[in-house]
Amino acid sequence: MEIHRFEKLWFGASLLLIVVLIATIVYGAVGPGVAMVDDSGGTVEPSNLTASENFREPGVYEAQDGGYDVYVRAQQFSFQPGSSSPIRVPADTEITFYVTSSDVTHGFNVVGTNVNTMVIPGQVAEITVNFDEPGTYRIACNEYCGAAHHAMEGTIEVVPRSQYELQSQGVTDQ
Ligand code: CUA
What we know:
Blueprint: H1 5-30, E1 59-62, E2 68-75, E3 78-80, E4 87-90, E5 94-101, E6 106-110, E7 116-119, E8 125-130, E9 135-140, E10 153-159, H2 161-168
């Protein structure tokens, strides 16, 4: 049977597309590490977030490995900390966010970065990030959570590491 030249061409092109599609997914998972948020953060009681070991009073804590742990509570319609006061962290440092919700499902997206997770009541989303550039980053909620969803946002202030260490020692307490 004779197969037309163009038919062979399109057959080859569609096979190539499938291979490229699979390759991009594999690259995303293995290269930049695109993944679903796993259950490493554990679970909490939404009405009493600090009842279990894996969530602390919302705030920034020094971690044992020289990084920082940031515990964030999302609720209609703010991030604590983040909304009324910015989250201050140093640049070039491993920052681990632990984010959970005390009411409904929210989102936690650091705009312009790949930090983006769903925040599900009862579940602690754990994300580790290293901000290379000092600056002000915006946090947005990108899951519809009620009437003021559009106004639910916060701020992260990333300061140079040297500056941050001074401040955390209380030299320039604000
Ligand atoms: Cu919280 Cu939308």
